[in-house]
Amino acid sequence: LYPSIRRDWDITFLHYLFFAFVRTANISYTLDVI
To answer: Which UniProt keywords apply (predicted)?
Structure first.
């Protein structure tokens, strides 16, 4: 059970980092365009 929870937590954490990176990149891109 623990390995499954650990894997799910890692996936969730990676998704959080990915979306945070995309959001930051989009903000930077918008500022560059403006």
So the answer is: Membrane, Transmembrane, Transmembrane helix
CA distance readout (Å), 34 to 6, 12, 24: 42, 33, 15
pLDDT, tens digit only, all 34 positions of the chain: 566 767 777 888 888 888 888 888 887 777 776 5
DSSP state of 1: -
Rounded-to-integer distance, Cα 34 and Cα 14, Å? 30
Structure letter (DSSP) for residue 34: -
